[in-house]
Specification:
By secondary structure, the protein is an alpha+beta fold. Helix content is 44%, strand content 24%. The chain is built from 9 helices and 14 strands. Strands 3, 4, 5, 7, 8, 9, 11 and 12 form an 8-stranded mixed sheet that branches. Strands 6-10-14-13 form a 4-stranded antiparallel sheet, with no helix packed on it. Strands 1-2 form a two-stranded antiparallel ribbon. Helix 6 runs antiparallel to helix 7 and helix 8 packs antiparallel against helix 9. The longest helix is centred in the last third of the chain and has 72 residues. The radius of gyration is 46 Å and the shape is rod-shaped. It starts with a helix and ends in a 15-residue tail after the last helix.
Length: 504
């Protein structure tokens, strides 16, 4: 047992000694990386330019980040050193950021929430003047004043996005953004190209959901205009200057969208002035802004099939009721009422899928007009029923009065006793006198009543004859006014796609 215990002690001391040597080796290697003597591909790897690395420099292959470099401020190289190589100081007054946007697709135009979703590749490039200055001796000889494009392209190296932690980055953002997402599977889709001459290209694929103030006066023939503004959040025009990449800064590769025609109409650069305050004092700052505009013209085919054509068919159905005989007015009213309720239900469904705004839209005018035409037809049928019902009431009244007179005559012709018959003869003479007077008055009333009834029948016949023509011409006139107003005022056909910014 003592022997085994001694072996265990010896084995433990051996393992502790080996671990201490391994740890010491890593500390030495780590210190060498910090001192600029590394031999790998990460920070401290001097590669073929190890001779340029000084103590404290970070070396990524042939890319050297000097120890004096700070990522907390906009890179600014010592201008006196630039003069040693004949480089004008004006080239480094402001840091230039070049931006390019490639729109892959328009995901959604949400008019209910007034938002637009765009999938894009966002590319920003700039020259880090500190890295540029450190590498001037690499590409400028006594007779050279600039770097050739071919040499610059060959100098780019694809870096891990973690490289961005060691350098300064512009704080660009898009105004009025609701959310920005990246379609990551394993890692986020970010590409970083770095040249040993200080040129940095940042590229990423993002999905941007942005607020877009929309106008719906001419809905559904509206064209929405969404402005995307790209700017720096904290660096003013004196520090950063933004530019669109040449030859074109914005391009749409896929303009397909089910309900809209999409295009980029323009790109531009302008300045904005914002008033800011610091320690109770206000001051104004000027920022560079890059803007591009997306136009989304709504396709009329959906609403033509779902709204306009069905409503026209419902109006025509109510007009077909004029072919039903006048004696079946109740059937006419039933069809008109059913059509009115169906039309109201359809328009309620349409309003649920349209934006809620305080002003009147073009589709609201159409809906109210269609309901008015169906209601007018129903009103005509109701008036026709009223006129026919009044005629029947007067005819029934005459029949009742006629029946009463006949009953009195029948009662007078019943068998009577001799004494009753003598008394009755005197009364009979008086009755016939009154009866002749009543008949004369009745004839006068019948003549006037007949005139009234004839006039009403003529009115009902005229109403029946001209109502359909009046409704048809009125609806036709409404369409001749509505559609030119909608298409001209909305400038719907003013749609020219610029090949410079859009895939044709």
């Amino acid at each position: 047992m003592k022997f085994l215990f001694v072996l265990f002690i010896i084995f433990s001391l051996f393992c502790f000694s080996a671990g201490k040597k391994h740890s010491s080796h890593h500390v030495t290697k780590r210190q060498a990386i910090v001192d600029g003597e590394g031999d790998g591909d990460g920070p401290g790897d001097a590669g073929g330019d190890a001779g340029r690395a000084r103590k404290g420099d970070r070396v990524f292959g042939d890319i050297v980040i000097p120890a004096s470099y700070t990522k907390m401020e906009v890179p600014s190289y010592n201008k006196s050193k630039l003069g040693q190589y004949g480089i004008p100081d004006d080239d480094f007054k402001k840091l230039e950021i070049h931006v390019r946007v490639l729109i892959r697709s328009i995901g959604d135009v949400d008019e209910l929430n007034e938002e637009i979703t765009v999938e894009m590749d966002f590319v920003a490039s700039w020259v880090d003047t500190v890295l540029y200055g450190e590498n001037i001796p690499l590409f400028l000889s006594e007779s050279e004043t600039s770097l050739s494009d071919d040499a610059l392209v060959k100098s780019f190296r694809t870096m891990d996005p973690a490289f961005l932690r060691y350098i300064w980055k512009p704080d660009l953002f898009i105004e009025n953004v609701v959310s920005i997402t990246r379609p990551a599977i394993i890692v986020q889709p970010i590409k970083v190209l770095v040249s040993k001459y200080g040129v940095i290209v940042f590229s990423t694929r993002i999905t941007v959901k942005m607020d877009c103030e929309m106008e719906f006066h001419y809905y559904p023939a509206d064209t929405q205009k969404c402005d995307f503004n790209i700017r720096s959040y904290s660096h003013t025009q004196q520090e950063l200057s933004l530019f669109w990449s040449e030859p074109v800064g914005v391009f749409v590769s896929d303009r397909d969208e089910h309900n809209f025609d999409i295009q980029v109409s323009k790109q531009q650069k302008f300045n904005i002035t914002e008033e800011e305050s610091l320690i109770g004092e206000s001051y104004k700052e000027v920022y560079d802004v890059l803007q591009f505009t997306i136009l989304a013209r709504r396709s009329l085919s959906y609403h033509m099939i779902q709204t306009y054509l069905p409503s026209i068919f419902f109006i025509v159905i109510t007009w077909l009721c004029f072919l039903i005989p006048v004696t079946m007015v109740e059937a006419r009213i039933g069809i008109a009422m059913t059509t009115l309720l169906t039309l109201t239900s359809m328009f309620s469904s349409v309003r649920e899928n349209t934006p809620i705004v305080s002003y009147i839209k073009a589709i609201d005018i159409w809906m109210v007009a269609c309901i008015f035409f169906v209601f007018s037809t129903l009103l005509e049928f109701t008036l026709l029923v009223f006129m026919r019902h009044a005629d029947h009431e007067e005819e029934d009244t005459d029949d009742v009065k006629k029946d009463k007179n006949e009953i009195e005559l029948e009662q007078m012709e019943m068998p009577m006793l001799p004494k009753q018959r003598v008394d009755m003869d005197d009364e009979l003479d008086g009755f016939f006198i009154r009866l002749r007077k009543l008949r004369k008055r009745k004839e006068k009333k019948n003549i006037s009543r007949s005139k009234v009834l004839l006039k009403r029948k003529e009115q009902a016949l005229s109403l029946e004859q001209y109502a359909f023509l009046m409704f048809f011409l009125t609806f036709l006139g409404f369409n001749l006014i509505y559609w030119p107003w909608l298409l001209i005022q909305s400038d719907y056909f003013n749609w020219t796609v610029d090949e410079k910014f859009n895939q044709i």
